[in-house]
Amino acid sequence: MDYNFFRIQSRKVVEYVTHDHSSPISTFPEHDNSLHFPIEDYGEHGAAFLSGNFLPLREEYTSFSSLDRNSESDNDGLRIIGSVPDDFPEGQFAYVGPNPKLEAQNYKVWGKGPDQKDFNVSNGWHHWFEGDGMIYALDFDVNSRLCYRNRFIRTKSWKDESEVGARLFRPLMNAEGSTFLLNAVANLVSGGAFLKDSANTALVHFAGRTLALQDTMPPWELDPERLTTLGACNFENQLPPYIPFTAHPKVAPLTGDLVFFGFNPVYPPHCSIGSLDQNGKIKDLTPMWSFPFAGCVFMHDFCVTEKYTILFEGSLDIKPIRQFFGRHPLQYNNDKNARFGVFSRDSNVPLAKWFDCSCAQMVYHFINSWEETNANGQEEIVITGVREDGFFHNALKARDTRDWITRTLEEDLNLPRVHEWRINLVDGSVKERYLYKDIVEVPRINDEFTGVKNRYAYAGRIKTEILRDDAQLKFDAVVKFDFETGDKQVYEHGPGRFGMESQFVPRATKLKGSEDDGWLVLYVHDENTETLGRSRSECIILNAQDISSGPVSRIILPDRVPYGAHAMWRPKLSDFGVRKFKVKGWNYYNDVQPKKYSFLPEQIDDLLGTVRCGILRLASSLFVNGWRPWVRKKKSEIYSFVRAGEYELDEAYRLGSMRMTQSQVESERGFQDSPNLVLYDVETDGECRRVREALCMLDLAFECRPCPYGAYRHRTLAAKLQNVPLGEEILPFLHDSRSRVSIIGAEDILDYLYDVYLDGSAPSPLVANRGTADIAMRSRNTESSSSISHSKMPCRYPVKPLELWAYEASPFCSLVREKLCEMELPYVLRPCSRGSPRRTELLRKAKTFQVPFIEDENTGIQLFESAKIIEYLNQTYCY
Ligand SMILES: [Fe+2]
């Protein structure tokens, strides 16, 4: 039986958000789909976007599962319905959106919330765009593994507001017109910036960095795997603090540069464009619009082609001077025509020119753009996007929202629809037309076609009835547009089910140039169902060539994913093997020198506990079977504990014939065989200890798959192999791949081991003594010792098991094994009890003999010293 095939890791760990303030956090109502919040307190928009599946999450999860799992029941972890396609690539699907972190009352109209002073002038309503960012990521990982995580993006404002337990930033997007400036200044005083940095809008992975983005602010860098927030990113001081970074940077065709722009309504330059090369270095940066206090256009997206960067100056702009006339600075101007600015990135094609559209327009999201030559031989730029003409500016307002939406839907004007612009670079004309009638947003394409002609786009279809009735933005279907034929495909999520932005993921074995050969991945929330007592969202995978046939796979997540903003696909990291397990302070670890019997002060209690266990077990397994001391003439290449003059201590042993043969072969070859024994155990269980002691006495290496209490990773497999439900598995459990035998329970395992590996012997009286093993382990695993061997933390799963040279009776080795057990890290234990020939092997390998000694092939680290090993394990494998 191939064990690796069943290597199932499924677990859920809830990491409650750390809030240092004293007030309780969970005053949001239980999740359901109704609108909870009184409009007079929260405004129409605020009430809508804090309710239903816009309700913020309180918890952060890490959940694992194997890809081959196809079960109708789960254990609060991930569940797969259908199967993830074999040619689905490794990588990470991630999604981000606003998720306000404080209790609900903080998001009332400013002044009604706790600790909010309004001075009777500074009112403002919560706006969806101003909520804290949260990322929701699903890793399609090595070893056929899935991992789901959601994490707050811990920006400066997140930390500052968390510390005081209240909002430091007043609303701006939905501030009352005349109070916008007061609120902005108050934000500067209380929070250190005019605008809150939420990093809640979009994600990009470029040059090894995963960045969470928000308009008008610098990016925030996240650890690509753990999703922990690393800090604000200015690309090694290359990006000046007054240059913001768009939420929608684009990888340019041909060069692979990441092209960006930024608009800054406060400080000049009010707009800038630039690019990063593939090493993450700023390649160029061009400030524009430097006239102070002039304000700027609200630009959320832009376009790139092979030669050009194209800015869109829509009719939504921000002019601070409007404050002095009692108006909000952000206004949509029906009398201001939109226009495109075309800027050459090719020094051979100098161009910086503006092209006027026919009327006032607004676009939040472009689909794509490319260069073409028309029938007259003239160069054109073709742009596709969702034109919406101020629709969202009004639809997300605090007051009179639903009336406005109802009216606009009835008039069928300014609604977001797929549109095309053709800019003639020769005669300066812009031809415009709508391509489809569907009301959509969040359009996406195969990202490999950014900047070159493409055929397909995928977008979310807006459920207009819900927009009208509840003022909520929800997508009831995915629409695939075919610009070549004008056709479309639709996948409807079904009644009460709503999708989020979809992401195209190329098939791992895709045909070159085949634009839709891949998958559409998106989160979907089912508002009808409550699973296992709580609402859960799912990730669906659609065949991009045939979306209307529905998902090929549904991955049920451990919690909801609130409706958010934008998605990202991050392919498998190119240097995955190294980067995944990159260790901080590599040299620091490899330079650790062994010291005899040294320990840290904080280890004293744990050490005394393990010493107590050893005494109660009469130092069983301190010696290999048949150990006896002898004296021989000194041999420098062979391990000896004591040397005196020309003589040294020789430690004889009596091992089984198979082990003797193996030892001789290993000694001649200079490396150790992979063990044929696999043990599922709990470090602090008395019965398990007896088996480990026997393995040490028989000098048998084994792969240990720790099964701490409350964990799933190896217990799931043990239960499967024993053909019992999870929770009914019996430990210790041993599998011998050499004889293809699996044995349950210590008594039978001991009989088997001695019979087979000590040539028909009966178990030693020491390991046969069950009573002292139970007493010894109960003395170790007490409440005061925080229940050692209980799973406490989510950990990475190593590609290859670690190797630990140790023996059962050593208190220092026990500390390392306890940590490995707690972290569910599989390891090969190479026993080195007194008399073991393996002591000489370790002497040859490490130039000295001391245990514990750990080798981690995943990182190349070899390390002595229990305290350093434990520190290393925490550093390397803890999330
Ligand atoms: Fe966007």
Report the structural category. Answer: alpha+beta
The number of helices is 18
The whole-number mean of residue pLDDT values reads 84
Number of strands: 48
Instruction: Give the biggest sheet.
Output: 8 strands, mixed
The residue ranges in which pLDDT falls below 50 over 5 or more consecutive positions are 1-29, 69-73, 575-582
The gyration radius over C-alpha positions equals: 32 Å
Residue fraction in strands: 25-35%
Helix content: 10-25%
Task: Give the neighbour order of strands across the main sheet.
Answer: 44-43-41-42-46-45-47-48
Terminus-to-terminus distance = 32 Å
The 3D shape can be described as: elongated
Number of domains: 2
Small molecules (ligands, ions, cofactors) in the structure: fe (ii) ion
Comma- or semicolon-separated keywords:
metal-binding, alpha+beta, metal ion binding, binds fe (ii) ion, 6-stranded antiparallel β-sheet, 879 residues, GST N-terminal domain-containing protein, Glutaredoxin, disordered N terminus, 8-stranded mixed β-sheet, Carotenoid_Oase, 18 helices, Thioredoxin-like_sf
Structure description:
The chain is an alpha+beta fold and 879 residues long. The chain folds into two domains: 3-116 and 123-570, no CATH class; 586-623 and 671-877, Glutaredoxin, CATH 3.40.30.10. It is built from 18 helices and 48 strands. The strands form eleven sheets. An eight-stranded mixed beta sheet has the order 44-43-41-42-46-45-47-48, sandwiched between helices. Helix 5 (401-411) runs antiparallel to helix 6 (464-470), helix 11 (686-697) runs parallel beside helix 13 (746-757) and helix 11 packs across helix 15. The longest helix is centred in the last third of the chain and has 13 residues, at 604-616. The protein is elongated, with a radius of gyration of 32 Å. The site of fe (ii) ion (FE2) has 8 residues, from strand 24.
